[in-house]
Write a structure and sequence with these properties.
The chain has 12 helices and 8 strands. By secondary structure, the chain is α/β, with parallel strands linked by helices. It has an 8-stranded mixed β-sheet with strand order 1-2-4-3-5-6-7-8, with helices on both faces. Helix 3 links the parallel strand 5 and strand 6.
């Protein structure tokens, strides 16, 4: 049976990171969401794997219900905010990261390998070159494009972007019925500082491959065939420890829109170790 326990609780940390816990399985899994996300992104997957693992799903600092300080949102800063979770007593973690969260997962695994058992990365921001990274990410939403190309204009656009949040929260769940309502509602729950700095440090300006190559753990990377935010997986030379899965006809949010299939892949990976 899959656990349905989803009650949020406040993490006991100075930064008061917001955490959801799902599942009662013997493994420990830490879910790290992507840009504009929250821990709610992982609830559908965690519900399906609740007999396999006990999931800890934080809202990363700067996003969701967690604090949003004016800091430089580097991989190290994101790690420090959840360090109390990573270092909590118990067996090493299965890290599950999506997009920006994949970068943070790789940072944790490469700098604190003793706390990690294995990794599953969805929509990992890995590119064949810096030019491809800038090209692909530069085609995304207006706020991302401005953060990348026209930083002087971002505050004006952000005023419109965040100003529409109340309206979007009313109509968003009806427009995106393929997503859980909470995932849609949390989409605007960040600041320009947390969004812009995280995007620049963890995606736009970050070559993830050197860190990935230093990860000593079993690792599965799941990329969507039609994900416009990642490079063609066949154009990348993957480290030997990577099990690559390319999902046909799928996009950036496949892990949540097709949680049954995502859970099957994760379960197979964990059982094969």
């Amino acid at each position: 049976m899959t656990s349905q326990a989803q009650t949020p609780n406040q993490a006991t940390s100075p930064d008061e990171i917001h955490v959801q816990r799902v599942g009662t399985g013997s493994r420990r899994a830490l879910g790290l969401h992507g840009l504009s996300g929250s821990g709610a992104f992982w609830v559908p997957l965690a519900e399906r794997l609740g007999d396999e693992a006990s999931f800890v799903l934080p809202d990363l600092i700067g996003f969701g219900s967690s604090p949003k300080p004016k800091i430089d949102y580097t991989a190290g800063a994101h790690f420090q905010a959840i360090r109390h979770l990573v270092e909590a007593p118990g067996e090493p973690w299965t890290l599950i990261g999506h997009s920006m969260g994949a970068t943070i997962a790789v940072h944790i695994a490469s700098t604190h390998p003793e706390r990690v058992r294995n990794l599953v990365l969805f929509a990992a921001p890995i590119f064949s070159s810096a030019e491809r990274r800038e090209h692909l990410l530069g085609r995304q939403n207006l706020l991302t494009r401005l953060c990348l190309r026209y930083p002087a204009a971002d505050k004006a656009v952000a005023a419109v972007f965040y100003g529409t949040a109340p309206l979007f929260r009313r109509i968003g769940p009806r427009l995106r019925k393929d997503l859980p309502a909470q995932v849609v509602l949390d989409y605007f729950r960040h600041t320009l500082d947390s969004y812009k700095s995280s995007a620049q440090n963890l995606m736009v300006g970050k070559d993830l491959m050197p860190d990935l190559a230093r990860v000593p753990h079993p690792l599965m990377v799941i990329q969507g065939e039609h994900d416009s935010m990642v490079d063609d997986p066949s154009a990348i030379s993957w480290p030997a420890n990577v099990r690559l899965e390319v999902i046909p006809d799928s996009g950036h949010l496949w892990a949540v829109t097709h949680a049954d299939e995502a859970a099957r892949l994760v379960r197979e990976f964990l059982h094969a170790l």
